[in-house]
């Protein structure tokens, strides 16, 4: 168990959409911001780490949603760097409503990268110690994202200037916008996301044309793949349910 | 003079880009959020107004920038509904850094709409009185956006699900993303925005294909026009200067 860190936040209008619920990309951004603040609170600055050539990278998320927060709703975000081993660090995020009811829970898998060499390095124990995160040989198992043969043509997205973060890379949350937008307004208005698994494989660069493949099964599982130049950048699998109205 | 209302905010990583400065669209969103909060503080809820068939709509902005706030910078946003007349309400926003230095100043022109009829209505004096905004016959003059003949082909943007707000319309700030992205990464990395004038003419709907026309003059004035189905949705004019580096 690591140290828990929490913040309370009101969901602003600009993070929501026609469902009145928070955008999934904005949800991930808010959770990441809270983990950034946990690091700041113990004197770790990810931007300084980047300047020293070391970057944190998320490789996998597993999200379970009971209910998404709505416009102007006050939520509490709790995060914890749970444990780390030689190459992986595991962090969880839990959102609660103002009554203390759990809204959603996110598992994340992080690696440390040598930014210049673009290769994984061993997790730095001193950094983990600062946030009370202990070494453990435990390997967390994330649900496997099934291989899928897409028969439908992809939706095309061009990477835009404002998709690029301060480090010059496409913000991880943008992939979720590409995947979800491909499902179309009718589907998104009529269904609620229950679980989401995403695996990040390769970065997308500015100006690249992105192919967003999506296919929906009868059991309301959607499969997603982001490709550039015939190489996979990210894959995802989501479980949906019909909205009660 | 209306009642001033202010909030302090730290600029999150996800609102910034490769320049380390805040995205212009995120900047407008943050300012609008503060004006929403001013309304909430006196018991006015724009969502309730919408439910009653009345909407606030911005028709014009004039922005003057000394410096844009940067990632993790703490800023204070001050807003004031300055005066209103029969059809227009004028609101200003000023951003200050943590030393109290002014970063930027925004003038905005608002109208009230009958949402069903899609037509302007007279400003409701009772609403204005609640935020200490007084009637005045003064008409604020905004810089005129010059007509411009575009010789270059437009950049095409498809309206996406997450561009649509809780009321089912494209968020006003998205137009700024379409306009600015069309200038390209090289230009945006090498230049700083000094002034921006934008005029909103018609709404864009979900799924529409947007033409973003842009043309840059030698004196670093950029002209912008957003068109759908050969009709103008928004026009803008921006003054830039070369970045000192």
Automatic annotation (TrEMBL), chains A, B:
InterPro entries: Acyl-ACP_TE_C, Acyl-ACP_thioesterase_NHD, FATA/B, HotDog_dom_sf
Top-level taxonomic group: Bacteria
Record-level Gene Ontology MF annotations: acyl carrier activity; fatty acyl-[ACP] hydrolase activity
CDD domains per record: 4HBT (cd00586)
SUPFAM superfamilies with a match to the protein in the record: Thioesterase/thiol ester dehydrase-isomerase
Record's keyword terms, sorted: Fatty acid biosynthesis, Fatty acid metabolism, Hydrolase, Lipid biosynthesis, Lipid metabolism, Transit peptide
Listed Pfam families: Acyl-ACP_TE (PF01643), Acyl-ACP_TE_C (PF20791)
Record's keyword annotation contains DNA repair: no
Domain Acyl-ACP thioesterase-like C-terminal, chain residue ranges per copy: 155-242
Acyl-ACP thioesterase N-terminal hotdog domain span: 3-130
UniProt similarity note: Belongs to the acyl-ACP thioesterase family.
Protein name: Oleoyl-[acyl-carrier protein] thioesterase
Gene transcribed to yield this protein: fat
């Amino acid at each position: 168990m690591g140290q828990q860190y929490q913040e309370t936040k009101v969901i602003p209008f600009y993070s929501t959409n026609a469902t009145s619920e928070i955008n999934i990309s904005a949800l991930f951004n808010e959770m990441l911001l809270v983990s950034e603040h946990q690091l700041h609170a113990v004197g770790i600055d990810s931007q300084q780490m980047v300047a020293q050539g070391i970057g944190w990278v998320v490789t996998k998320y597993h999200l379970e949603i009971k209910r998404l927060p709505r416009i102007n709703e006050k939520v509490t975000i709790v995060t914890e760097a749970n444990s780390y081993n030689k190459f992986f660090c595991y962090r969880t995020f839990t959102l609660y409503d103002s009554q203390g009811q759990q809204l959603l829970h996110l598992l994340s898998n992080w690696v440390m990268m040598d930014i210049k060499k673009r290769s994984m390095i061993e997790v730095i124990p001193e950094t983990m110690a600062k946030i009370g995160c202990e070494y453990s040989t435990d390997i967390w198992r994330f649900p496997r994202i099934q291989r899928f043969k897409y028969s439908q043509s992809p939706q095309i997205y061009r990477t835009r200037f404002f998709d690029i973060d301060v480090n010059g890379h496409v913000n991880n949350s943008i992939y979720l916008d590409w995947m979800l937008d491909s499902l179309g307004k009718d589907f998104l208005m009529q269904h609620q996301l229950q679980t989401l698994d995403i695996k990040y494989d390769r970065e997308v660069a500015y100006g690249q044309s992105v192919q967003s493949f999506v296919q929906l099964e009868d059991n309301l599982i959607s499969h997603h793949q982001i490709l550039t130049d015939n190489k996979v950048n990210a894959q995802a699998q989501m479980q949906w349910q019909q909205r009660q109205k």
